Amino acid sequence: MTDVQFRELMAALRQHQSLLSDIQTELAYLNKNVDEAKISKSLKEINENLEIIGDKISE
Predict the structure, then answer these.
(1) What is the secondary structure of 1-59 as a DSSP string?
(2) Torsion, CA 35, CA 41, CA 46, CA 51, rounded to 10
(3) Is residue 59's pLDDT more than 80?
(4) What is the pTM of this model?
(5) Integer CA distances (angstroms), 34 to 31, 39, 41, 46, in order
(6) Could you give the CA distance from residue 11 to residue 3 in angstroms, rounded to a whole number?
(7) Phi, then psi, of 2 in degrees rounded to 5
(8) Tens digit of pLDDT for each residue in 2-18?
(9) Fewest CB within 10 angstroms: 1, 9, 26, 50, which?
(10) 33-56: pLDDT as tens digits
(11) How many Cα atoms occupy the beta-carbon half-sphere of 21 within 13 Å?
């Protein structure tokens, strides 16, 4: 491998590393949103169940 080929390879590797870092950041953001959506759905379900329990206690 020539010096020029080595430098080109290293430049390509740095570019791929940067792209992978961007993808990792985006996946973390998406995962956070999914977790927040799951938590919100769970809280909504808990609230609905508490309302049902409250209605049954009132009867």
Answers:
(1) --HHHHHHHHHHHHHHHHHHHHHHHHHHHHHHHHHHHHHHHHHHHHHHHHHHHHHHHH-
(2) 160
(3) no
(4) 0.58
(5) 5, 9, 11, 18
(6) 12
(7) -80, 165
(8) 999 999 999 999 999 99
(9) 1
(10) 999 999 999 999 999 999 999 888
(11) 6
